[in-house]
Amino acid sequence: MSRIFVVDDDAGILDAVTALLESEGHVVTSSADPSLLQDLTSATLPDILLLDVLLSGVDGRDVCAQLRKKALTKDLPIIMFSAHPQVQKEDATRQCATRFLAKPFDITKLLDLVAELHPAGPL
Amino acid sequence: MPIKKVSKNTEKDASSEEIIGKLRRELDEARELLARERQRIDSFLSSEERLHTAQQTASIGTFEWNLKTGKFVWTPELEILYGHKPGTMKLDETWSKFVHEHDRDRVSKLAQHAAETGEDFHSEFRIRWPDNSIHHLSARAQIFRDTQGKPERMVGINTDITDRKQVERNLLFLAEASKTLSSSLDYQTTLNTVAQLAVPDIADWCAVDMLVNDQITLVAVAHKDPEKVSWARELRHKQPPNRDAPGGLPQVLRTGKSEFYPEITEELIQASTKDPKILKLIHKIGFRSLIIAPIFRGGKPIGGITFVTTETNRLYNQSDLAMAEELASRASLAIENAQLYLESQNAIGIRDDFISVASHELKTPVTSVKIFTQVLQKHFEQLGDHTASTYLNKMDKQINRLTELIYNLLDISKIQAGRIEFNEKLFDIDTLVRETVEVMQATTKHKLIIEGETHQQVFGDEDRLGQVLSNLISNALKYSPKAKKVIITLSSTEKEVTVSVRDYGIGISPQHLEKIFERFYRVFDNTDKTFPGLGIGLYISSEIVRRHHGTFHVESHQGKGSTFSFTLPLNSTEKSKGMERL
User: Fold this and answer.
1) B367 to chain A: which residues are within 8 Å by CB?
2) Which residue among A12, A17, A20 sits closest to B365, beta carbon to beta carbon?
3) Measuring CA to CA, which residue among B451, B501, B450 is closest to residue B476?
């Protein structure tokens, strides 16, 4: 079991990813609002963050960079995903993401990544 | 004179009455004779008059030049041809001064040559009238020799050919202007060139006005003297066109009919303005003759081309008017074409934007549906419901197809907007082919066979080139439903590698072959039935290959199958240099 925080501005994606991860036994918190990430404490810190690159009005890459500046989230495993794979894969990973996923993604790929980044996670 | 003398034997032969009667008869005869003689003289005179009239009407003048004495004899009509009143022109050995300065040397030499050799003289040249206007003459002359056979006299005629020359000029100008008008879609530049072309052969001034935001705007003006162009602009500045003016351009814009002033009289000028400064400027410019022909768009007058003569004193006639109207109608057509082209480009831009936005928007819900499908599939597998699991698996495959279509649409809009980008590196082409074929093999009953190896590294975007190969293989499968195999061949030379995909399907007829790389083009089989797809795969593939500086080939025989190949260069340094962001 891993605690996973999902941030995406599309409710359809949030629903689907939450359903997928919960069906695998993970504990999921989801939000369309990335500013909630600023309020994370050591108690609420997830094991993995799933972050969309293009959020409404905010660039996920900036959100990621800010998290890296904080001691608490400096080493947090972050998977960024985007519908613009060609352009943003390199950008996102070079800047700060731990891994990158292109939308639409195969669920096995996402589940493999979760298992890789938080090995103690699965039930 | 045949008047008989009166006889002296009157007493013997007859009475006095008889004598008187005879005298009367003789007198009558004499009168009759006189009348006939007078008639003869009259008719001689009128035939000379007729000759003069004929010469005048035909604009022909004759001359005789005594080469020994240098003396000239000429008809009054010749003087008229040279713009003089009969009896006021003096013709002598300085005759060439009447010829236009640019033609003078040539004509003098020709006349000299004729006088020396006795050969016939024929030439066409311009002359300048005392009022400075330019006219065209044709001259023909014959040499008469003396008893020793030496050239003695030159006898010839001059004919006015100004009208013919002008028609020739007009036709030439129309032809050139039409070429210019069709050369570009930027009509403002084109109109400027047309105005320049009109000067000086057709007009001393040429201006083009267009309605821009419902304001009459001077878009082009030409005169051989740049200083005078600034006068025209000054005049326009001081006296902007009044849309309600009863004549001129505003009238043309109201009626769509030409305004034609063969001769601009002082009254016309005085009627045009009361402002002494403007009057002075108009006099300085010295308008003589003027035509304004309408330019149309969608049947409505939207501008006018103005031709003006000034210092050349040329007066426009009906054939000039016809030329101006023809030019204006060709300009209208050119402007209309430019407008339609712009509109079609805009429409294409809107369509491409729409495809881009729509395909982007489609991606998110498809992602969501795909995830739910896979979650459900897993769920039913765990429950042991194999039927539901199979259906969901099929559903997932259809979602993959949908995803691929969306990506193709996105690609096409990127290519169109020049925004496709490549993630380049050196990669093993054999491995790419093997992996792609493995993935494709899982989707088909056809046997996919790889022949050959290259052992080469290629510099480029591996994913995009894999996409090209996938596209070629999936086309091969789609268009060979009854075949059992597809052969993928790898080959290389020192400079390039080639990947070919051969199918044994329906093939492509020659009329389709040229078009299959066009966007949205789809092949139909011999029953006119088409195959599923948007007709964009080959277009995208050929664009990807082209931007890798490679080439695309196709060979096909109807009913036997097709071979599609792409060749990529191996010179990586040159290639990386040439990879432009397109």
Assistant:
1) 12-13, 16, 83, 103-105
2) A12
3) B501
For residue A20, the chain B residues in CB contact (below 8 A) are 371, 374-375
Measured CA to CA, the distance from residue B553 to residue B208 in angstroms comes to 51
Q: What is the pLDDT of residues B440-468, one digit of tens each?
A: 898 889 999 999 999 999 999 888 899 99
**Length of chain A (residues):** 123
CA B514 vs CA B30, B469, B542, B556, B581: distances in Å? 101, 20, 13, 11, 27
d(CA B190, CA A68): 60
The answer to whether the beta carbons of residues B501 and B476 sit under 8 Å apart is yes
pTM beyond 0.80 = no
Q: Six-digit token pair at B170? A: 């007009």
User: pLDDT digits over B486-514, tens only?
Assistant: 999 999 998 999 999 999 998 888 877 77
**Token pair for B84:** 């003089």
Q: Is the CB of B368 less than 8 angstroms away from the CB of A89?
A: no
B114: left (phi over 0), alpha (psi -120 to 50) or beta: alpha
Distances in Å between the Cα of B581 and the Cα atoms of A1, B63, B196, B218 are 45, 78, 40, 41
Distances (CA, A) of B547 to B389, B473, B539, B542, B580: 43, 21, 12, 9, 8
Instruction: Give mean pLDDT, residues A96-114.
Output: 82
Read off the DSSP letter of residue A35. G
What is the CB neighbour count within 10 angstroms for residue B413?
Answer: 21
Are B69 and B86 in contact by the 8 Å Cβ rule? The answer is: no
CB under 8 A, 24+ apart: contacts of B51-56: B52/B76, B52/B77, B56/B80
CB contact under 8 A, B421 and A86: yes
Quote ipTM for the complex: 0.81
CA angle B494, B496, B499 (to 5 degrees): 130
d(CA B98, CA B563): 78
Strands A3-7 vs A27-31: parallel, antiparallel or unpaired? parallel
Report in angstroms the alpha-carbon separations of B64 from B75, B78, B365: 9, 11, 100
**Partners of B555 in the beta sheet?**
B563
Helices and strands, number each (H, E), in chain A = 4, 7
Beta bridge partners of B74: B63
